[in-house]
Amino acid sequence: MGGVGEPGEGPAQPGAPLPTFRWEQIRQHNLPGDKWLVIERRVYDISRWAQRHPGGSRLIGHHGAEDATDAFHAFHQDLNFVRKFLQPLLIGELAPEEPSQDGPQDAQLVEDFRALRQAAEDMKLFEAKPAFFALLLGHILAMEVLAWLLIYLFGPGWVPSTLAALVLATSQAQCWCLQHDLGHTSVFRKSQWNHVAQQFVMGQLKGFSAHWWNFRHFQHHAKPNIFHKDPDVTVAPIFLLGESSIEYGKKKRRYLPYNHQHLYFFLIGPPLLTLVNFEVENLAYMLVCMQWADLLWAASFYSRFFLCYSPFYGLPGALLLFVAVRVLESHWFVWITQMNHIPKEIGHEKHRDWASSQLAATCNVEPSLFTDWFSGHLNFQIEHHLFPTMPRHNYRRVAPLVKALCAKHGLNYEVKPFLTALVDIIGSLKKSGDVWLEAYLHQRSLPESWNKNLGSVGQGCKRREGRALAEPPRNPRSLLDGLHIVLGAEEKQKGCGQPGLADLFLQSTSIYGVSRGQPGQMVGKEIHKNQTCRCQTRGFVRSCILSRVTHLSRDVAARTAEES
């Protein structure tokens, strides 16, 4: 056994003793162009090879300076084949005294999860049933033919067109599921066969790039619900999720009314994701990454679609049918894929072990024959994330083993009713928006002109290092006088760039030590909630504030009396 290795030693020579490394050394190599990772206690330098990684440099780079053993097993079918590519990258191994995982991870949980995976392999749960996937492809093709026959036999009227759009949207939704299975190499034993079949389904049947999908989706699986690593939750500044709500609030960022994001979600989320975001992102990926084969596959889809429907509708009508199908399909995609993730923990990297990170970011939906089919078995999201290459028809069989593992280690194995899971998406968006609003209002500083007016509210108000500090006024009436002065100043504010009166009122309650549950605070929130623009009329805002200002005065008077 060699001594403790030094950075930059390069690949180990065949037959030579392997240098050993400590985690503190490995942690230093997590930079662009300088990345190490650990697999089965062996240390690999992937700095140069990452760009040639079939899953993309970002995917493998997300595991930089970490133990990637479980991710390595989760993403690859033929481990012996993949190890051939790892051998030239080997530079050493972990020192004997070093733990297999870096940081405060549960070694027993890691060991038990690996035993569970071995048990699933022994039960042959990673072997697919060809008839199952053949049936899926058959019913997709049947729906494509049925939609065309509806128009051919009954003409392009509203009723046949509506039925055809619904059938085509269902077919497109099921195509997402089938290409998803193929992308995870869970259908055929040979990876190459899965890739070719995925290009056909994704390209000819859907008009998208298989490589684009795998590029973004594998990152989601590697680091689910982790900002800047999972593309599915890196959606700011359009939507704020999890920890980003507090961050945007503290930094006083307000690009959109995030406290209403649960409402505008219905306008730009489900209707436009596939039609706009995916279409643009997909085309840009194919052109920038020069995926010409995928571009040809996608072109074959559009050629087939417009050749089939333009004779009945003309080009504008066929385009309208295409848009309708994409919008319907987009609704399905958003609700089905996000019901398992958005309501869960979303934030920055926590460096958890594989099982803990997947369980923290996923939940299940109660199974049924309809739910299994409608969601493409994504209602078993926990099992799918723990074992991405497992054929979906085996999720039911492995689920009891996963439940037992969670019960043993006190992990949350969450299962929801279908409708509850859908409603929780909106609830999570609203909660994140409320958190942003709370942080935004309490972190913002007031312009000097406002602080001069606040000086009339209480005596001793000063500005120190950008923070407003004040002593409670000895005469509660001065609070009323100060508010009248501030209200008068509102008329002088031109445009929406200055703080609104609702914000000022919240700030004044904070300055005078009024607790959050007091009526004045609640009124301030009500005012802000109803402001479509900060420039409200003076009379409306005055009436709202003065209707509750007596309560605030009493609070201040009581506090003053106690201090006296």
Descriptive account of the structure:
Among the domains are: 20-103, Cytochrome b5-like heme/steroid binding domain (Flavocytochrome B2, Chain A, domain 1), CATH 3.10.120.10; 130-349, no CATH class. The model is unreliable at 1-9, 445-557 and 559-564 (pLDDT under 50). 59% of the residues lie in helices and 5% in strands. The radius of gyration is 29 Å and the shape is globular. It is built from 23 helices and nine strands. The protein has a five-stranded mixed sheet. Strands 6-7 form a two-stranded parallel ribbon. The chain has a two-stranded antiparallel ribbon with strand order 8-9. Helix 12 runs antiparallel to helix 13. The relative contact order is 0.08. By secondary structure, the chain is mainly alpha-helical.
